[in-house]
């Protein structure tokens, strides 16, 4: 009888803890989105090299299209899945300027871009962040780490970890 009470109380406590965790996560996500909308963060200043060794700055990003930054590592399995999905869905991203940013050696970035045929797409650039300055500035603590900006370079949303690219497309449709 005592064991049943202990098990019952343990289950109730566990359910309350799980429910509380879910509610807190939902609240924090809504709060994050509210802060982003209120502060309307713009694309940060940066200066990186592309895979051809040319300097590329934030002022080089054209307006009138969405901008998507993807901080990645060529060895990351989830980054590879995102790249494959990007290759498959590239026609749906024609109104996006997409920048893959990595601190991996340029040769590895080039191989990655070639493996997924993303180097052939005119709206996708691969950028080399040799000092991790971009990743540090945007707060990328995991890969893949993505940031979606509207056509006026205002932050729409940050995505940490692997997500389906349809989520990004749907978020862009709201703007």
Structure characterization notes:
The protein is an alpha/beta fold and 175 residues long. It has two domains: 39 residues; 127 residues, Glutaredoxin (3-Layer(aba) Sandwich). A seven-stranded mixed β-sheet has the order 2-1-5-4-3-6-7. The model has no long low-confidence stretch (mean pLDDT 91).
Give a short overview.
With 175 residues, this protein is of the alpha/beta class. It has two domains: 1-39; 47-173, Glutaredoxin, CATH 3.40.30. The chain contains five helices and seven strands.
Note the total helix count.
5
Q: Write the H/E string, N to C.
A: HEEEHEHEHEEH
Helix content: 40-55%
C-alpha geometry:
elongated
> Beta fraction of the residues?
15-25%
Poorly predicted ranges (pLDDT <50, ≥5 residues)? none
Radius of gyration, whole Å: 20 Å
Count every beta strand, where a strand is a DSSP E run of 2 or more residues: 7
CATH architecture of the largest domain: 3-Layer(aba) Sandwich
What is the CATH superfamily of the largest domain?
Glutaredoxin
| Overall pLDDT metric | 91
- What is the CA-CA span between the terminal residues? 59 Å
Largest sheet: 7 strands, mixed
Q: Structural class from helices and strands? A: alpha/beta
């Amino acid at each position: 009888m005592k064991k049943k009470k202990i098990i019952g109380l343990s289950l109730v406590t566990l359910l309350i803890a799980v429910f509380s965790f879910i509610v807190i996560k939902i609240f924090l996500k809504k709060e994050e989105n509210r802060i982003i909308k209120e502060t309307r963060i713009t694309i940060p200043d940066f200066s990186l090299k592309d895979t051809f060794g040319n300097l590329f700055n934030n002022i080089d990003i054209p307006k009138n299209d969405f901008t998507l930054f993807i901080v990645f590592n060529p060895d990351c399995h989830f980054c590879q899945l995102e790249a494959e999905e990007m290759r498959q869905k590239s026609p749906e991203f024609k109104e996006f300027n997409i920048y893959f940013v990595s601190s991996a050696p340029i040769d590895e970035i080039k191989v990655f871009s070639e493996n997924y045929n993303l180097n052939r797409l005119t709206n996708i650039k691969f950028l080399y962040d040799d000092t991790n300055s971009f990743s540090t500035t945007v707060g990328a603590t995991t890969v893949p780490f993505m940031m979606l900006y509207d056509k006026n370079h205002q932050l729409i949303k940050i995505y940490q970890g692997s997500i389906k690219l349809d989520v990004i497309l749907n978020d862009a449709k709201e703007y």
